[in-house]
Amino acid sequence: MKLFQYKTGIVAVAAALALTACGTMSNVSKDGTASNLVWPNVDGVKFDNDQGTFPVLGALAQVRDGVTRDQLYYLLGRPHFAEGFRVKEWDYLFHFNTPGQGVNNISTCQYKVLFDNNLIARNFYWKPVTEGSVCPDGKQNESYTLSADALFAFDRSDLNNVTAGRTELSNLATHLKSRQNLTSVTVVGHTDRLGSEAYNQKLSQDRAQTIVNYLAAQGVPANLLQARGAGKSQPVVQCEGSGAQLIQCLAPNRRVEINIQ
């Protein structure tokens, strides 16, 4: 009897979740389209401390028709709303640094992804949330990754000894100054996992700020530039071993990302 009651309870909970999801979601066709979009209430965010996230613009720029759920999860993380099981749409709440626009220079936008019957992402939609918010359309974003090893000497955050990376930085500054309708440039510093979290956080922030200072000195509007340190929290490779071999293997993690809107 207890087992039967337990199984009945599971079915009841699953049914309740399904009914809840159906009432707050769009009617998505088999090819991943919907005539009328249903947007969840922003107060219903369930993850990331009920606040949504600041996405990595370089990752966002890689989202396109044909990506799988696993690929989308890797690029943007889990959807921010509890929408049920095997649903055909995911919803996110994103924030962007947009100097002079949005609320306190922050734009807040909802982002919806629709999937076809094979759960392949097919269509993508934006909706501004706060007054004056500017949402990206995916076509105007650019992302560049520069090797920290080419930009900085070991354990340093100044550009005094830059050799290989100087030309890349100069070319980047020239490109940014030529861009029309530039709204923001976010420079994100990354380190490898060697060393403490506090040490790597400071090093990554200092390196990002150094790049921001350089770009501003080259004529890129300073009010559009943002520096952020990610420390060792976002590795692109995982390595084992020790010594020089490990340091070399971890090189891709030591980088600076420039995300442009």
UniProtKB/TrEMBL annotation:
Any Pfam family matching the protein: OmpA
Q: Could you tell me the keywords of this UniProt record?
A: Membrane, Signal
Where is the protein found, in the record's own terms? Membrane
Residues forming the OmpA-like domain are 139-261
InterPro entries, sorted: Bact_OuterMem_StrucFunc (IPR050330), BamE_dom (IPR007450), OmpA-like (IPR006665), OMPA-like_CS (IPR006690)
Q: Which residues form the signal peptide?
A: 1-26
Q: What is this protein called?
A: OmpA family protein
Kindly list the organism's lineage: Bacteria, Pseudomonadati, Pseudomonadota, Betaproteobacteria, Burkholderiales
